[in-house]
C-alpha cells in the first residue's frame, strides 16, 4: 500500500477522541514521518503540531 500524504505536508486530524488532551486546538499537523503498513495493510504517520507529536493511521487525517 502507498502513502497518500508526504513528509512536511500539512494535514488535519479528523478522528480525535473527544477527551484526548494531546490533540491540538487547531487540529492542523505536519507529517514528519511515514510509517510502514501494519499487518492489515493500513499505513500510518507521525504527525506534529507545536510540541505535540503522535502516531495516526491514514484514515484519521485529511489534507
Would you mind describing this structure in some detail?
With 63 residues, the chain is mainly β. 0% of the residues lie in helices and 41% in strands. The protein has no helices and five strands. It has a five-stranded antiparallel β-sheet, with no helix packed on it.
Domain count: 1
pLDDT < 50 stretches: none
Helix content: under 10%
Q: Tally the helices.
A: 0
Main pleated sheet? 5 strands, antiparallel
Summarize model confidence as the mean pLDDT.
86
- How much strand content do the residues show? 35-45%
Give the structural class.
Answer: mainly beta
Q: Tell me, what's the shape?
A: globular
Q: How many individual β-strands?
A: 5
Q: Biggest sheet, strands in spatial order?
A: 4-3-2-1-5
Task: List the main descriptive attributes of the protein structure presented here.
63 residues; mainly beta; 5-stranded antiparallel beta sheet; 5 strands; 0% helix
Secondary structure elements and their pairing?
Layout (H helix, E strand, L loop, with lengths): L9 E4 L14 E8 L8 E6 L2 E6 L3 E2 L1
Antiparallel strand pairs: 1-2, 1-5, 2-3, 3-4
Brief characterization of the structure:
This protein is mainly β.
